[in-house]
Amino acid sequence: MSDSPLRHDWTHDEVQALFDQPFNDLLFQAQSIHRRHFDPNSVQISSLLSIKTGACPEDCAYCPQSAKYDTELETERLLPIDEVKQAALNAKRNGATRFCMGAAWRNPTDRNLERVIEMISVVKDLGMETCVTLGMLTREQTRRLKQAGLDYYNHNLDTSPEYYGEIITTRSYQDRLDTLRHVQEENIHVCCGGIVGMGEGEDDRVELLRQLANLPKHPESVPINLLVRVENTPLYDADALDPLDFVRTIAVARILMPKSAVRLSAGRSDMSDELQALCFHAGANSIFYGEKLLTTPNPRENEDLELFARLGIKPQSVKQAETGQDAA
Ligand code: SAM
Ligand code: DTB
Ligand code: SF4
Question: What phi and psi, each to the nearest 5 degrees, are found at residue 124?
Answer without folding.
Answer: -60, -40
